[in-house]
Amino acid sequence: MVEVNLWSGLRSLADGHETVDVDAKTVGEVLSGLIRAYPALEDPIEAGVSVAVDGRIIASALDEPVNPDSEVFLMQRLKGG
Amino acid sequence: MSMIHVNTTVNGDEVDFVCDPRETLLDVLRDRLSLTGAKEGCGTGDCGACSVTVDDRLVCSCLMLGAEAEGKSIATIEGMATTEALDPLQVKFIEYAALQCGICTPGILIATRALLAKNPDPTEEEVRYWLAGNLCRCTGYDKIIRAVLDTAKDLRADAGEAR
Amino acid sequence: MPNDTQKISVKTTDFKVVGTTPDRPDGIDKVTGRAKFGADAYAPGMLHAAIYRSPHAHAKIVKIDMSRAGALKGVKAVVTRADFATGLAGENWNILENIMASDTALYDGHAICAVAATSALIARDAIKLIDVEYEMLPHVTDVDKSMASDAPVIRAGTADKSVPAGLGENVVRYHESGHGDIDAGFAAADLVIEDTFKTEATHQGYIEPHACLATLDTDGKGEVWCCTQGHFNVQKVCAALVGTETSQIRVTASEIGGGFGGKTVVFIEPVALALSRKANRPVKLVMSRSEVFRASGPTASASMDIKIGMMKDGRMTAASAVYRMQGGAFPGAPMEFTSMCGFAPYNLENVHQIGFDVMTNRPKQAAYRAPGSPMAAFAVESVVDELCNELGLDPIEVRLMNASHEGTKASYGPTFQRIGLVQTLEAAKAHPHFTAPLAENTGRGISCGFWFNHGGETSVTMALSEDGTVALSVGTPDIGGSRASMGQMAAEELGIPYEDVRVTIADTATLGYNEISHGSRVTYASGLATIEAARDTLKKLCKRAAAKWGIDEDAVAWVDGCAVPSGANAGDFDPLPIGKITRSMGRTGGPIVGHYEATPEGAGVSFATHIVDAQVDPETGKTAITRYTVVQDAGKAIHPTYVEGQFQGGAAQGIGWALNEEYIYGTDGRLQNTIFLDYRIPVASDLPMIDTVIVEVPNPGHPYGVRGVGETSICPPLAAVANAVSGAVGVRMTQLPMTPPHILSELGKKARAKKGGANG
Fold this sequence. Notes:
Chain B has five helices and five strands; from the N terminus they run ββαβββαααα. With 163 residues, chain B is of the alpha+beta class. The longest helix of chain B is centred in the last third of the chain and has 21 residues, at 142-162. In chain C, helix 7 (231-242) packs across helix 8 (269-279). With 760 residues, chain C is of the alpha+beta class. The interface between B and C is large, with 61 and 60 residues.
């Protein structure tokens, strides 16, 4: 299992939890695991998220690997000017 | 609206065109004479991207009517390089990275040439105030000012040698 | 195939071309006036378009009557919202609603209909003949007023599910993040300072207005020429908005006369396409400057509360922030970036931040260089400065003591990989500017700044010519000299001269999808793609050499532009230069082309520290920036002169934001300053030389360590200038811009307070 840290603005959509454990080997599986656990998270995830894995911010690639001991943070999708 | 026939000189060549009396010199240069080097950044004389000289006087071509070009001698960026080489200012602007996006560059080069014709040895402050009518959003002006001062220095050295 | 960017071995020394400063390939075109920008394209039979815009901040559109305009001689087509695709959802619907209103004008300048005519003058005349009947609605343009429960509602039901209950209808998105226990942190502090800050909306201020030339045939095939930071995005959005297939629209990016985020957005191209489809002629559409100000994207304005606790020795104990960001009549104000960037420079055990995205009757905000970050830095770094003043501490030492470094838990959650904030602070401390004496009425300001940087979808092709030279096609519009740096990286990998590489920004029919040139991603992502495409090319070159020599492919290496046998049993052959292989490539297997398509995910965040001296005339309140130094971590500077240019440009824009620039709305909700005379960006005589120090702490996610440099440079200046001005006048400046009247009013308040104090 991978522990995923949500930004606290998402707590209300995940029964008050700020971390969610999901069974995942990739970034894509992290996101689908979150939606399975808390369907209300689908909207913000579809709206665009980045996933920080061990400090590296994955903006879009779903095939990036995730390990059980990885530090995983969900973040809003990055864009710039 | 009836059109006006205008005879003028552009970059040393005799040119004639017809235009609507409301068309600016910038409109005419770009849309009728295919000289798109002068740019419209504002249309109100605030940005200097459309700078040309008319009888050696620096003007914003967006503030002058095309019909007013009758009998005048106009110089645009397209006439700056000779058949042999780029103007020393053009060379120095590339070397100093005095341009990024390059939209303001034709106007700044024309304005700078007009400055150096009047004042071959300007101070940094004089260059900054002369070019205050030419907006550049990319560079912060640093490299432009340096390129101008260094070109002026080279041109003075050349003039000294020629003497 | 998963990306293996993390396993990249980073080369940071022994470069031959990288780190040098060759002339840019577009240089001669740009100094001779030949470079073709958005408005410089013409087509046979071309029409000129103009857009009718709402003069009202908020009004129901009751009726649009275009009969008089349509009857004007020379007018060939008119369009309204009815001429665009229906059934759109999400962001595409927002974009269409923004560029062509359906039933309500949401801001002064909102497009309502458009015409195409045989000349630009006729098109403008036709606009004056359009009759629109409005029903006026109440409007709101201020962020704090818009959050009030009794504020006029821009569009009910827009808020997403993250917005907590009980907030006004105009609060449409919400962010909250942080860690630790801020209450305990504040309780432990020796000093807590809390203050409220405001910044006004500013415009990216590119000198080239939006411009395009478009053709759309009745069979759905279209061509667009336009100035944009992302032509693949233009292609996708245009196809959706006019209702055709993406691949049927081919978009070519012109030279771009500045963007800074403002040209990441689609405004006029679908309008030109719709007019072209109706008129069966090519249509050119160019915005006027006032249209650019009224109807393209300025940045968000902000209202912010910051609270920071500090021990007497300078250690921060806790920090919290609330950011209220005004983003115009649509969702999207970058409050999540504001929230995540504000405290990123600091190693904080207890930190909390909240962001609100608030709609108003203003144009839809667009990204502007590190969107959201400069405002946060202004507020946070002002409080840090005030804490240093109150506690008598050195502003750089305090920042060093609290600085984020590799292994720090970032204020936004994850752990930082290798970063260079400490190095920028050390370099600032060592810079002569920091210890130079100060003139009268002058203050010195310090600030740090942070931006994420970005990777994104990227596709590059490298085709070899028979003579051994290289055609490199990239899909990210060159907004800062990237053709030079791409050419350098290609030459470096191939071991050939820089001059042998011709770099082209390819159109949408030539390459796979490329994300917009934004997020400081081009030198990082297109650079990485160029390096990988070169390595792919080299593999193919080595294979040809191996076949020629009759040895194993693995026994061939590439050294200084030549294939050479490598290893004990490879045999003894003379080095085979690239040109000798390409000369016979048609007969040894065909053309040699290398390529790379992926989404690189190794962008490295970056930090900067700026030092500025500001002199304030106490009589007039006018501020002169007398000295400026930028220190920034570039990771690796591919072309150092162009990196300096990015540093200087960001600083200059930040100075404008701090001192002059602002969107001014009247009580009627109309924008009051729609030309450069009234919206004053810094001119040459406003600025000093801008000194630069390039720090290079390599990004582990790029083969040469590149981080990207375009955006971070605008993050510190607002705060640095505000800290300098506050020092000069002896009053904490909490609102931007610090115009002369604003400064005089603060000085007056100070004088009255002093007098009052003396009397009392």
